[in-house]
Design a protein that fits this description.
The complex is a heterodimer of chains A (about 300) and B (about 250).
Chain A lengths: L4 H40 L2 H4 L3 E2 L4 E2 L2 H32 L2 H16 L2 H28 L14 H26 L2 H9 L4 H11 L1 H17 L2 H6 L17 H12 L5 H33 L1
Antiparallel strand pairs in A: 1-2
Chain B lengths: L2 E12 L2 E12 L3 E5 L6 H8 L9 E9 L2 E2 L7 H6 L1 E4 L11 H11 L6 H14 L3 H4 L12 H13 L5 E5 L7 H14 L4 E6 L2 H7 L2 E6 L2 E7 H6 L4 H7 L5
Parallel strand pairs in B: 3-8, 3-9, 6-7, 7-8
Antiparallel strand pairs in B: 1-2, 1-4, 4-5, 9-10
Helix pairs in contact in B: 3-4, 3-6, 4-6, 6-7
Classes of the chains: A mainly alpha (about 300), B alpha/beta (about 250).
Chain lengths: ~300, ~250
């Protein structure tokens, strides 16, 4: 059945309505972030971003420790996740037998969509003690003279949060790499094999060809790592201090907001302060996504 | 007489489908040998069976012999990457590595296969291959630019240079001009005539005029069977088989 002209018009009207609704909601969030957080920026100016203090009693707020915590945990996460995500993608597209491939990919996609509180629980009760006993303590004991490992670790700290984040974003990042790998043209592989390349050499050249897609996947994953809240709040330690090493306890912006909002109403400036943190997170996340999308677009132009 | 390649009772299946049926023929050295036939007759499969590129398809099964210099490429003791290096291959759609530079596209094969000892030798080899492919003058100032910047015809000549850089004896061409404009096509054809001095060229084409124009020997393949093979002038003027005659005059295909 074909749609009448009138039907098409109604259809378009509905489409336009919903499109604009979501655009307006996003714009609304941006506006309220800025307006609600403005008092904190008026009061402290740049100090809000550059100071390390969180004292509700004196109404003194500085977001620097949480900002550094966010950057540190997500950097740890992306450094660990990059080789894992690429290996997983290559493994599932080249090495694993065809009949197990879709099973394995489903598992990986399931991991990507698991509620983050599950990762948080597992991170707190399983991952944190293991990392503490077998990785962080030995590193601190034997290599403690290196500043990165200088703090005596507790099970929950920035490093644990970074590793947990890495585990959480690997399936997501690797599925983007996997898709791009599968989309690499067949005649490119033929060319590579025809000049006597081995399977490993062909894999390398294919990875080179999808470089942009890999960057895109990693930046989108980084954006996720920065915004992740619950799981991180459960393992990061939640202490607002400037991190002195990888093993220091810390805060991230999102875990700070999640932990502090229940009492925020009691203080004059805490709500604006939390909104100020949210605004920063919004900006950093926006930048990461734009960089990621830039690489995605580069891939699309090429193919 | 020694042959560039000898094919004996070659059979190919994709899963259960019998694609090539008992193909046998010999290709003399330093000639252009064309394989022609309607689409789907198995031409490209035959070409890929020679350098074992067919094995990229996990469903492909091969029986029979393909001999180069008396060595059967399907012998268990033969290394598959060695086999592929004995042939240069040029494909229907120009497929340089688009993210690599013009230079690296040509240099990669010899580098990986240890054909050169140092940078100077490599530079010379790349230059020579590009000159042989009549591309050097057009790209000598852009060697560092990505291959994707070149035009379609230039990309195809780059692929020829990439194949030549491996110093093969035989060059396999799978409809190399099918996606090029007439000017670029005739350049490639001239180039092939030039190259047969030093190489044996096996070209697959669905264009019987092209086969008549450039080849010395021609094989006509129809529905997976080798119908006729012989000197091009004979096959086109006095075909022995009725099917060949029909194809040559354009009644089938």
């Amino acid at each position: 059945m074909r749609w009448s002209v009138k039907g098409m018009k109604v259809f378009y009207a509905v489409l336009i309505f919903f499109t604009f609704t979501s655009l307006i909601i996003i714009a609304g969030i941006a506006v309220s972030l800025i307006t609600v957080s403005s008092p904190i920026f008026m009061k402290y100016g740049l100090d809000f971003v550059l100071k390390s203090v969180w004292n509700p009693v004196t109404e003194d707020y500085g977001i620097l420790p949480a900002l550094l915590g966010t950057l540190m945990t997500s950097t740890i996460a992306i450094l660990i996740a990059t080789p894992l995500a690429i290996s997983l993608a290559v493994f599932s597209s080249e090495i694993i037998p065809q009949r197990f491939r879709s099973f394995m990919n489903s598992i990986s996609d399931l991991m990507a969509s698991l509620p983050s509180v599950i990762y948080g629980l597992w991170g707190l009760y399983v991952l944190a003690p293991i990392l503490h006993n077998y990785i962080m303590l030995p590193l601190h004991n034997y290599l403690g003279f290196i500043p990165l490992f200088s703090t005596k670790p507790t099970p929950t700290n920035l490093f644990t949060a970074g590793v947990l984040l890495a585990i959480m974003i690997v399936p997501f990042a690797s599925s983007i790499v996997r898709e791009a790998y599968a989309a690499a043209p067949y005649n490119l592989k033929e060319a590579a094999y025809s000049i006597g390349m081995t399977k490993w050499e062909v894999t390398k050249i294919t990875l080179g060809y999808i470089k942009s897609a890999i960057f895109a996947g990693l930046f989108l994953a980084l954006g996720r790592a920065m915004g992740e809240t619950v799981a991180v709040a459960m393992v990061v330690g939640n202490v607002p201090n400037i991190p002195k090493s990888l093993f220091d306890v810390g805060y991230t912006i999102s875990s700070l907001i999640a932990n502090q909002f229940p009492n925020a109403q009691a203080y004059e400036y805490m709500v604006p302060a939390l909104y100020g943190g949210a605004t920063l997170l919004f900006l950093v996340g926006l930048i990461m996504n734009l960089v990621g999308l830039y690489f995605v677009r580069k891939v699309m132009i090429k193919s | 007489m020694s042959w560039a390649i000898e094919i004996n009772n070659l059979n190919v299946w994709y899963s259960d489908k019998h694609i090539l049926k008992d193909i046998s023929f010999k290709v003399p050295k330093n000639i252009i040998f064309a394989i022609m036939g309607p689409s789907g007759c198995g031409k490209s499969t035959l070409l890929r069976a020679m350098n074992r590129l067919l094995e990229l398809n996990p469903n492909a099964k091969v029986k029979g012999q393909v001999k180069i210099n008396g060595i059967d490429v399907y012998n268990d003791n033969v290394d598959i990457t060695w086999v592929r290096r004995q042939f240069g291959m040029v494909f229907q759609i120009p497929n340089p590595f688009p993210h690599l530079s013009v230079y690296d596209n040509v240099a990669l094969g010899p580098k990986l296969n240890g054909l050169v000892k140092n940078k100077k030798q490599l530079d010379e080899l790349v230059k020579h291959a590009l000159q042989q492919a009549y591309l050097w003058d057009e790209v000598k100032n852009d060697l560092k630019k990505p291959a994707s910047m070149l035009s379609g015809g230039q990309q195809q000549r780059l692929c020829i240079a990439r194949a030549l850089a491996l110093k093969p004896k035989i060059i396999l061409m799978d409809e190399p001009t099918a996606n090029l404009d007439p000017v670029a096509s005739s350049k490639i054809e001239e180039l092939m005539l030039e190259l047969k001095e030093n190489y044996t060229i096996i070209i697959v084409t669905h264009n019987s005029q092209q086969a008549a124009r450039i080849s010395d020997y021609v094989a006509f393949l129809y529905m997976g069977k080798l119908v006729e093979v012989g000197e091009t002038s004979t096959v086109f003027t006095k075909p022995r088989h009725e099917l060949t005659e029909k194809y040559v005059v354009g009644k089938i295909g």
